[in-house]
Amino acid sequence: MASSTAIGGHQDNFAATLRTDRWWLGPTLTAAGLIAFFGYLTIRVFYAQYVWADPYMSPVVSPPLFTPAAGYKGAVPVNHAWLGAFPAWWPSFLPKSPGFFFPVLAIMFRATCYYYRKAYYRAFAATPPACGVRGVPLKYRGETALLIFQNLHRYALYGALFLLVFLWWDGFAAFFKNGKFGFGVGTFLLLGNAFLLSCYTFGCHSWRHLIGGKLDCFSCDAQSRARLGVWKKSSWLNARHMQFAWFSLAWVALTDLYISLVSMGAIKDLNTW
Amino acid sequence: MAERTFRIWRGNKDGGEFVEYKIDVGPGWVVLDCIHRIQMQHATDLACRWNCKAGKCGSCSMEINGKPRLGCMTRMNSLPDGPITIQPLKTFPLVKDLVTDVKWNYEQNKRIPPFKPKARNADGTHRMMQEDVDRVQEFRKCIECFLCQDVCHVLRDHKAHDQFVGPRFMIRLASLEMHPLDTEDRVEKMRKEFGTGWCNITRCCTEVCPEHIGITDNGIIPMKERVVDRYFDPIAWFLGKVFGKK
Ligand code: SF4
Ligand code: SF4
Ligand code: FES
Ligand code: FES
Q1: Do A1 and B232 lie within an 8 Å CB cutoff?
Q2: What is the CATH number of the domain that holds B143?
Q3: Which residue's alpha carbon is at the smallest distance from atom 4 of ligand 2?
Q4: For the residues of A1-21, what is the DSSP string, one character each?
Q5: Exposed/middle/buried for residue A220 (C-beta within 10 Å: 0-12, 13-18, 19+)
Q6: CATH code, domain carrying B96
Q7: pLDDT of A140-190, one tens digit each?
Q8: Does B217 lie in the same domain as B120?
Q9: Which residue, A46, A239, B95, B194, shows the most beta carbons closer than 10 Å to its own?
Q10: Average pLDDT for chain A
Q11: Using one digit for the tens of pLDDT, what is the confidence trace for A185-237?
Q12: Distance between CA atoms of A172 and A154, rounded to whole angstroms?
């Protein structure tokens, strides 16, 4: 007969639970996945070499505002950057990475995403680590205090929609090498990247709200009826938002890895050119 | 019949302990069957609330092997071998053994401004289309078992009962706010009194809901977004400052 002083047998110390399943597996895998993918992408942004293998541009630097004119192997050609080469005032302690500009929008989008919030609140903040498992016994204010900025997620969405246009552009641009039509494995990867990011973006909770969820009556006028159709499609994607979050994240990393390997000459791109 | 061991928490608000019981379990039994057998064979005074034994009344909420679940919907053959731990809900005050006092929930419900319908149509009716109430009907499946309230760490661990009404009442609010005929505005209260910001969307409520209601995705997040519309949209805020609107 086990005795317990805690009422109901509920202990209140960190990670206390009477769950018998492997509740720690989910947060552990999540933490490992987040560290692996975001770690890889962060390193790539700072490294900033081998991001271009004509006609493929890595999503890690796209769209490039500036590009290093020299000193970076496999950099995006200067005529492909919006404003050309990095300006002279660029601080020397910072790598000349085009990834510091527009691609940051994608990080902001994912960092404030309702799904990723769940993932890192559980895996890193342990508030709570798993259901029915006692979280960190620190003062908790939810998203009312320090984390109130999470409410700006829809602005990150606008940034992501802007970015998406250029990622599709990169996919279609990958059909043309020196003006000649063709395609290669990289074309497929870049189009897949834009596709998966579209599935992720259009399943976003903020998008789903703005596009139709905010209405109380879908049948009241023609415009609302049209929005119902879009809302339903967004709801379908939204129900799979976690899956698309991971798939699209892994695909970005895979696309970048492939382009960097081709750029280094480590592998040969299979293509029609 | 196979013998199984149960560790059931026995006691009241002043204290208690886990007590072990062994019974023979028949095929197809659910946890509530086992509790009834224990009451019959070993402990006639074991307190447990139940009613329908069909997963519809929401009375038999308890924590089985650390997870908030309905006793009548948890099949014995779905549980791993070894002793089975049964506890009362953590979030609400204990009455006795497995029975907790859930009246706080009914008090929350009373705080929510009720349905305020539009005027009737000229023919004296209220009319609404199915597609406008699909969302609301999902929330109407709620059986008020309060498992979501129990698992929600805001209430369970942080005891923020004064700040947050909990997931069950977030979907109650959503069902009213999304209703095509309702005219009441609860957005300000949702933020300031009912605590949308306290939920950190970690989704445990959705995981435990026996009715599989998309509490977080379809209820709480849409309400958070409506709060954002009013309070956190910098463009709206800026325009308000410039034109002096609230
Ligand atoms: S998602 Fe929100 S309401 Fe649901 S259990 Fe988590 S914190 Fe509570
Ligand atoms: S929402 Fe689900 S878990 Fe919560 S009280 Fe209703 S039926 Fe129970
Ligand atoms: S991107 Fe995940 S909710 Fe917006
Ligand atoms: S007894 Fe009614 S829900 Fe379990």
Answers
A1: no
A2: 1.10.1060.10
A3: B148
A4: --EE-SGGG---STT-----S
A5: middle
A6: 3.10.20.30
A7: 999 888 888 888 999 999 999 999 999 999 999 999 999 999 999 999 999
A8: yes
A9: B194
A10: 95
A11: 999 999 999 999 999 999 999 999 999 999 999 999 999 999 999 999 999 99
A12: 27
β-strand pairing of B67-70 with B61-64: antiparallel
Token pair, residue A221, equals 């006028």
Residue A10 contacts by C-beta under 8 Å, 6 or more apart in sequence? Answer: A16, B87, B90
> What DSSP character marks residue A143?
T
Distance between CA atoms of residues B178 and B128, nearest Å: 12
User: Does one domain contain both B129 and B185?
Assistant: yes
With a pLDDT cut of 70, the percent of chain B lying above it is: 97
**Strand, coil or helix: A267:** coil
Contact status, residue B172 vs residue B203, Cβ threshold 8 Å = no
What is the rounded CA–CA span in Å between residue B20 and residue B5? 7
Q: Is the CB of B148 under 6 A from ligand 2?
A: yes
Among the candidates B79, B100, B121, a domain finishes at B100
Chain B residues whose beta carbon lies within 8 Å of the beta carbon of residue A27: none
What is the CB neighbour count within 10 angstroms for residue A13?
8
Amino acid, res. A180:
K
CB of B101 within 8 Å of a chain A CB? The answer is no
Closest CA to A206 of A131, A270, A117: A117
For residues A92-121, give the mean pLDDT: 96
> Which long-range contacts (C-beta less than 8 Å, at least 24 apart) are formed by A43-47?
A44/A99, A44/A256, A44/A260, A45/A97, A45/A99, A45/A100, A45/A103, A46/A95, A46/A97, A46/A99, A47/A95, A47/A97
Average pLDDT of span A3-18: 85
The encoded tokens of residue A225 equal 């009826």
Kindly state whether residues B94 and B108 are assigned to the same domain: no
Q: Are residues B39 and B114 in the same domain?
A: no
In the chain, the amino acid numbered A7 is: I
Final residue belonging to a domain, choices B66, B100, B134: B100
- Chain A residue with Cα closest to B136: A216
**Which of A1, A10, A148 should one mutate to test binding to chain B, selecting the residue with the greatest count of B CBs within 10 A?**
A10
